[in-house]
Automatic annotation (TrEMBL):
InterPro entries: DUF349. Keywords: Coiled coil. This is DUF349 domain-containing protein. Residues 222-298, 437-464 form a coiled coil. The lineage of its organism: Bacteria, Pseudomonadati, Pseudomonadota, Gammaproteobacteria, Alteromonadales. It comes from the Bacteria. It comes from Alteromonas profundi.
Length: 935
């Protein structure tokens, strides 16, 4: 025991100096001595010994642990500096890269990470490590610094993926203009904006869908409602597939609204269904009655057609077609009888059916009578033809009369057997009878008429000669000669003398004509040659000139003795007509080309696929029709043939288009009716939404045909214009009302007293803001902006008043301190102070003194340090200690020393001693430099 006390190890000595000496002799390489060093480092009460043991061990891990667990400020601070120096590659302490990374990930503080990253940007080369460090620091400023100044492009891309703040992205986008990462930032910004807009767009579409759903409550056609309901439910379900984009409250609200509308619609359908079904039954009966009426007309016309137009030549197929029409009428009759046995249409249909069936049963016998009647009529026509031939051969009338009498008897007998005499047979018989009965009278009348014409022509020619119009007289005489030759001998004898005298006079005139024509014909030949040599200006003018010359030549009469002149004239006119012939040949070629083009249009029309959609079919037909109308002219005969083929080719497509146009017309007429109702609605805003939906439906409906499309659109547009004009006036009135309210609020804002107390002022502002809530956003924003302007004015006034108050307080406090007695005994003689000027805090500091741990000199130096005012050189050491104490307080307790608190303690010490006058002077400089300390 005594031995152990005499030779105890020096590291266990109570003397720190001996323990320090012992540490110098210990080696961390030996396990036993290393344990001793550990014990001294972590458990020794002396800071010097602990630090010496830690330095001997020289381990980063141990220094790090000590920086975390030591309660000794000096040891902890030293350990922190060692750790930071090691991490920064300074000093003797070293650390492996792996340990360094592990430390940064697990233990490093945010401040240390920031320092290391700034000093060692290569740490950011490891993207995973860089993201861990950025997340640990978790400061936007550090994030931006790394992104803009130190991060590589891959790290920037990784960091960019974590940014959801639009404001930060906008800042980064501005600061990276021209850099490679900028497009990615723009794309990320666009993606975030688009993602933010998706819920809004989805909510808008769902709202529109529900509005359409709710609008079904205004309709009365259950079939239409159910079809639209199915479509809208499918649309709603498709939209709700993306419901995860909506907020929970919005989703619940949408689902609740959908359920409410759906239930309302089901109740509405249940309420109107009985009446609708009754109306549908009435409509069905009305439709069947209309169909029955149409089939009665059709079946009657078919039977009449069979009797009147096909009685003689009708085939079994014709009879079958008519029979089918009657059987269809019977089926419709039976259907109507099942639906409504008391319909008035059944009585008429019963009588018609009986008559039609009776006619069909007797048709075979009637056809036999009619065919026999055809034979009789044909024989009568043959007899009439024989009479025409007999007129030329002067056959006897007795045979004709006998034959015609027999035929007439047969005709009357057969016609009496027919229930309905075909019109064509009746007309043929009537025609043949008239030809037979009136043949002689017609012949005699014709002869007398010819005789009258001859006498009239003789008078005309004589009058022309008397008037000196010889050419006309000669032209008329040639016609007269033909009429005279057609008369029989007795008629010729009655006017022969006058005709012979007139013939002699004409012969004499023709001699004179030859004499006159001799010099005129060469002149006409020259005119024809001149016309042929003249340039061609106009085809029509040239043709008219040629026709005029020909008429002039013919007016001179035929000159058999001068064939050479005739040939010269014909040649000249032929040369003049050559350009015209070429022109007409070109026109013929164009007509042929137009004909071929029209034939191609007919072929294309014949190949139209009528099964394609109606809209495409209509475009095709319109295109072909336009091409047909724009095609060139063709010969009239060719055109008629082509036109018939053209119409036949287009008929199937046109019939389908017409049916489509009719259906579109019905739909658009329905929209027009709805639009006209909306135009008179009271709820203009809701009506406007519905009208916009109607306009969209209008666009989705096809064309209603040329006649109806523009008419329907004009009425539809007028109804919409009326509605939106009313809405415009309503909004204008509301806008005027809002403007007046805004003007009233602006007047109240202008009347605000910026010098009033806070409670009164805030009450007035709150009242104005409450009244502005219902204003439209632009007007509301202007009112709020105006309020903000008044608040800024009030703030400026307050700030000025506060500044003046602080300056007055500082001046008053300085005056007080300068005249303050220098000892406690002189308190009674201390100058008076105005507590209202100094304020409660500073008046209390003067009146209620308290014990202050620090000296007035220390407080003066601290006050100068906090306010960045200079201190005398003699106090530099104290200022260093003050700053160290301030830093320690900030690091350990997180406290920051306030300059106002220091000044309050300085005053609370009490009277200023004589030796403290320099300190007072220094404090007064601080107050004068920074009077806001007294705020």
């Amino acid at each position: 025991m005594i031995f152990s006390r005499l030779f105890a190890p020096s590291h266990t000595s109570q003397n720190p100096e001996k323990r320090l000496e012992a540490i110098k002799n210990l080696s961390p390489e030996k396990p036993s001595e290393k344990t001793i060093l550990h014990e001294l480092a972590f458990n020794d009460d002396n800071a010097e010994v602990s630090l010496a043991a830690l330095s001997k061990l020289n381990s980063f891990v141990l220094w790090l642990k000590m920086s975390q667990i030591s309660k000794n400020e000096r040891i902890q601070r030293t350990a922190q500096r060692k750790v930071e120096a090691c991490l920064q590659g300074k000093g003797e302490l070293t650390i492996s890269e792996g340990d360094k990374v592990a430390f940064l990930k697990e233990s490093a503080s945010a401040e240390l990470i920031q320092q290391l990253v700034i000093s060692e940007p290569q740490l950011l080369d490891n993207t995973e490590l860089a993201m861990v460090l950025i997340e640990k620091v978790a400061k936007p400023s550090f994030f931006q610094t790394v992104f803009l100044q130190h991060a590589s492009l891959p790290l920037q891309q990784t960091m960019l993926a974590t940014i959801d703040d639009v404001a930060m992205l906008q800042k980064l986008e501005k600061k990276t203009k021209g850099q490679e990462i900028n497009p990615s930032i723009s794309a990320r910004l666009s993606a975030l904006k688009e993602a933010a807009e998706k819920p809004l767009l989805l909510m808008r579409d769902i709202t529109l869908c529900l509005s359409k759903f709710n609008a079904l409550l205004d309709k009365s056609d259950i079939e239409d409602i159910e079809q639209r309901k199915l479509a809208l439910e499918a649309e709603y379900n498709a939209l709700m597939d993306n419901a995860q984009l909506l907020k929970s409250d919005d989703k619940q609200e949408v689902e609740a609204k959908y359920t409410r509308i759906k239930q309302s619609l089901e109740r509405y359908l249940a309420r109107i269904r009985p009446q609708w079904e009754a109306e549908q039954a009435e409509k069905e009966i009305a439709n069947i009655e209309a169909l029955l009426k149409e089939q009665i007309n059709h079946a009657t016309s078919q039977v009449n057609w069979l009797y009147h137009q096909r009685l003689c030549e009708a085939t079994l197929a014709d009879v079958a077609v008519v029979n089918e029409a009657v059987r269809g009428l019977e089926a419709t009759y039976a259907h109507l009888e099942d639906l409504s046995s008391d319909s008035s249409s059944l009585i008429k249909a019963t009588n018609v059916l009986q008559q039609l069936n009776k006619k069909l049963e007797g048709f075979s016998m009637q056809q036999q009578y009619a065919q026999k009647l055809v034979v009789v009529v044909t024989q009568a026509e043959s007899l009439a033809d024989e009479i025409d031939a007999a007129k030329k051969s002067e056959s006897t009338e007795e045979t004709v009369e006998h034959n015609f009498s027999d035929l007439k008897t047969k005709y009357q007998e057969l016609a009496g057997e027919l229930t309905s005499l075909p019109r064509d047979l009746s007309e043929r018989w009537k025609s043949a009878s008239q030809r037979i009965n009136k043949q002689r009278l017609a012949e005699k009348s014709e002869q007398e008429n010819q005789l009258r014409q001859c006498r009239k022509q003789i008078n005309t020619v004589e009058n022309l000669i008397t008037q000196g119009r010889f050419r006309g007289a000669m032209a008329k005489f040639s016609k007269l000669a033909k009429l005279y030759e057609g008369l029989d001998k007795s008629q010729q004898d009655s006017i022969g003398k006058r005709f012979d005298n007139l013939a002699q006079e004409i012969e004499r005139l023709e001699g004179w004509q030859s004499y006159i024509a001799a010099p005129r014909q060469p002149a006409l030949i020259e005119e024809a040659k001149a016309l042929a040599d003249a340039p061609l200006d106009d085809i029509k003018t040239r043709t008219e000139a040629i026709r005029y010359l020909r008429q002039q030549w013919l007016s001179l009469g035929k000159q058999a003795s001068e064939p050479t002149l005739q040939a010269q004239f014909d040649d000249a006119l032929e040369q003049a007509f050559t350009p015209c012939r070429e022109y007409y040949a070109k026109m013929d070629a164009k007509r042929e080309e137009a004909k071929q083009f029209r034939q191609s249009l007919v072929l294309e029309a014949q190949s139209i696929d009528v099964n394609q959609p109606e809209a495409a079919l209509a475009k095709t037909v319109d295109r072909l029709s336009k091409a047909w109308h724009q095609a060139g002219q063709v010969e009239k005969q060719d055109y008629e043939t082509l036109r018939t083929s053209w119409k036949a080719a287009l008929t199937p497509a046109q019939e389908k288009i017409q049916a489509w146009n009719f259906a579109n017309k019905q739909e658009k007429q329905s929209l027009v009716d709805e639009a006209q109702v909306l135009a008179e609605a009271e709820d203009l805003s809701g009506a406007a939404d519905k009208a916009q939906a109607l306009q969209k439906q209008w666009k989705d409906i096809g064309h209603a045909g040329k006649r109806d499309e523009s008419r329907l659109w004009r009425v539809f547009k007028q109804a919409n214009d009326t509605l939106f004009e009313r809405l415009k006036e309503q909004r204008k009135a509301k806008s005027h009302e809002f403007d007046q309210r805004a003007e009233t609020l602006n007047a109240k804002i202008d009347a605000l007293d910026i010098n009033s107390d806070d409670l009164t002022f805030m009450r007035s502002v709150d009242e104005i803001e409450g009244l502005a809530k219902d204003l439209p956003a632009p007007l509301k924003a202007k009112v709020i902006k105006r309020i903000a302007g008044v608040q800024r004015q009030r703030g400026a006034v307050k700030d000025k008043q506060l500044q003046q108050q602080v300056e007055a307080r500082a001046t008053h406090l300085v005056d007080y301190l300068q005249h303050y007695a220098n000892s406690e005994s002189n308190v009674a003689s201390a100058p008076a102070y105005d507590a209202s000027v100094l304020g409660k805090r500073w008046a209390s500091a003067i009146e209620q003194r308290h014990r202050v741990e620090k000296s007035r000199q220390w407080l003066t130096v601290a006050l100068e340090a906090v306010t960045d005012m200079p201190s005398p050189a003699a106090d530099s050491s104290m200022r260093t200690d003050v700053q160290l104490s301030m830093m320690t307080a900030k690091l350990e307790q997180g406290e920051t020393i306030d300059a106002s608190d220091l000044l309050e303690d300085w005053i609370a010490i009490g009277a200023v001693e004589n030796h403290e006058q320099p300190l007072l002077t220094r404090v007064i400089k601080v107050i004068e430099a920074q009077p806001e300390l007294l705020n």
